[in-house]
Specification:
disordered N terminus, 10% strand, alpha/beta, 6 strands, Histone, subunit A, single chain
Length: 313
């Protein structure tokens, strides 16, 4: 495939849909580098629970935004967008194909469109904040907002859960206080994005999710979480408020049994996959590919490269 100065590929879809395998297969055909659009793989020490590409895969193809940050650091789609676009520009200068890979919808949007006019809702962040509201109450959330955006809190005529959650959501998404958020948003990228979505039959995808969870347990997810605890990382860090890690922390604290922990990781992963699919289904620009079975990757990679090459002429 001839290189281009303006075309990039984005591979998106729900958890366990095979995005990484497809990206690696395409990279084996044409000279590529992978830009991870995953809000958790960017953190060090979160390997098994995030299904992070292994050392061999990362040696095979250069990956960006993997193992960059300490789990105690905050990161956001607002930061990722411009930083990822800069990395993409550098890859294009080398006349390589950038492949954006990820299931974090807002991160993909930050690359493809920028965050114009302020961010929309993020269903996962919203769910996390609503769960915290139920567990800790409005006073705790309001105090959190006071620390990151006292001006927004002070402007509220009435401190309500809806207003506090929205202000915290904006801060989590953009990394900026809502009171200072720039309404004009980011500058749109100057490259063309060809988006490919992986579409599975729901029953088959859920089976893949269950198998992945079992594999994570066999690979040592509990030891990984224990290691994070030993390093002093608080379970309430944003990086660890994630499916897989939350349930293991609960098990270690005696909230439920090991069997219940595994059941909950599977259930919550399926719910997460459903939310991811709903998010991406709203984008009419995505070219969906129906996939099934175990031997689809090579054929799909060949067809996508052929499609990209044809569109460049």
């Amino acid at each position: 495939m001839p290189p281009t100065q303006s075309r990039i590929l984005a591979i998106i879809g729900p958890t366990a849909s095979g995005k990484t395998s497809l990206a690696l297969s395409i990279a084996a055909i044409c000279d590529s580098e992978i830009v991870s659009a995953d809000s958790r793989q960017i953190y060090k020490y979160l390997d098994i629970g995030t299904a992070k590409p292994n050392t061999a895969e990362r040696k095979m193809v250069k990956h960006h935004f993997v193992d960059m940050l300490d789990p105690s650091e905050e990161y956001s789609a607002g930061r990722f967008g411009p930083e990822a676009r800069q990395v993409i520009a550098e890859i294009l200068k080398k006349r390589k194909l950038p492949i954006v890979v990820g299931g974090s919808g807002l991160y993909v949007k930050a690359v493809v469109d920028g965050l114009f006019g302020g961010p929309g809702k993020d269903p996962d962040i919203r769910l996390e904040l609503e769960e915290q509201l139920r567990a800790d109450g409005i006073d705790v959330l309001a105090e959190t907002l006071r620390k990151v955006d006292p001006l927004a809190l002070g402007r509220m005529k009435e401190i309500t859960p809806r207003r506090v959650i929205r202000a915290l959501e904006v801060y989590r998404i953009t990394g900026k206080p809502m009171s200072q958020f720039q309404s004009q948003g980011d500058v749109p990228p100057d490259f063309d994005v060809y988006q490919v979505g992986l579409l599975w039959d729901r029953k088959e995808l859920y089976q893949r999710i269950d198998e992945r969870v079992e594999s994570m347990m066999t690979s040592g997810l509990e030891d990984e979480v224990q290691g994070l605890k030993s390093k002093g990382y608080d379970r309430h860090l944003n990086a660890l408020n994630t499916v897989g890690y939350k349930e293991v922390f609960d098990f270690m604290e005696g909230v439920h049994s090991r069997e219940k922990m595994i059941e909950l990781i599977k259930r919550n992963s399926r719910r997460f996959a459903k939310r991811q699919t709903t998010w991406f289904k709203g984008d009419q620009r995505i070219h969906w590919r129906e996939v099934t079975g175990d031997d689809w990757v090579g054929d799909a990679a060949q067809k996508i490269v052929k499609m990209l090459s044809a569109r460049l002429h």
